[in-house]
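Worked problem 6 (solution included).
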Amino acid sequence: MLMSRVIDSIRHRNLARLTARCDSQYLDAEPWVLDQLDVADDGVKIGGWALPPIDPNTSATFAINGQPFDRLDYPREIPIFKDSLWMRPRAEAAGFRAERRQPRAKLFCDGFISISFNFPGRPVRAPYRSAWYRPTLPSYHSTWYFRDPSLQIALPDTKRRYRVIGSESEDMFSLGGFTDFMRMNALLEDRFQFGYRDCQRILDWGCGCGRVARYFATVPGVDFHGGDIDPDNVSWCHDNLKFGTFHHLPLHPPTRLAEGSFDLVYGISVFTHLRENVQFSWLQELNRILKPGGIALATIHGPTTMNYAMMPAEHHRLITQRIETEGFVITASNDQIDDVVEDKDYYVNVAHSRNYIRKQWGQTFEVVDILPGFIWTHDLVVLRKRL
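Solution. The predicted structure is:
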């Protein structure tokens, strides 16, 4: 009996090692890209790229509103990915095009469409394991959401959109904003059993020109606030997003926001651009304005960002090694908001290691989870104010 248990144990260990060797070829997170979305009265066409199964015999699926596309061309070769995503086997087989023929009213019967990608065994790493850890991705993590354009409220002009996302595209602005809105709500409901509707007061910290904020017009009963250091975008939000209250924030806290007043604060691509001392000041300020037990969601440039930066192998090795060693690294200057802030050195590009987040941010907040590649290539840090 004892020998049988020993043999079984060895078998399990060997199987685990084999699985680990296989899985190690996948990246920590593998977000996929929609860069074409054409909606017509009689259907929709999409295109982009999604890293395929390493085993070419494994089938991947694309779905729209849970249903297969009528036509799917996948995989399509993207030769440059063999060099730019060198760490991932079969990366060059990532391209796709798909089409669904369906009347527009049926496509948007729920007010939006959802587009998902998956394959059996698609992995996810859990760099910060908790009781909530699961070996596979929840479906909302790998789904894009696009709201019916006829239901959209005012869109900002191209210059404002560019300052926020680095692109002038209306569809990409809307697609990314609504996807982030939907994913964060699904995460809150999944992880904490409450969503936006259960909050009394919510703050979009770094609201820009309302890329995500605009969708809170659909959430009744919430006292919604947005804040940003960009006075022009704040003014635009104030004039066009009448459901919320918008604040011009100083470059350095404190703000005039009331202590202990928010149930939820989220900041997308804000800590990705703050110098270290400024970062610590804002962590303290977010902690101050949250209610005890309140949740903060914040994105960082982590390993997924570096993997998707399309850099040569040696450069990738050096920068990732530096980030892991130093924890916090300024990776580049950034002039995206130079026209609207006085301090031209304020806004930079930065990267964090996950160990740094646990240690340094953990001095101010409880670090509940770090979810790789949750908001495009950004890791999402889930924080909770201690009681």
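Discussion: DSSP finds ten helices and 17 strands in the chain.
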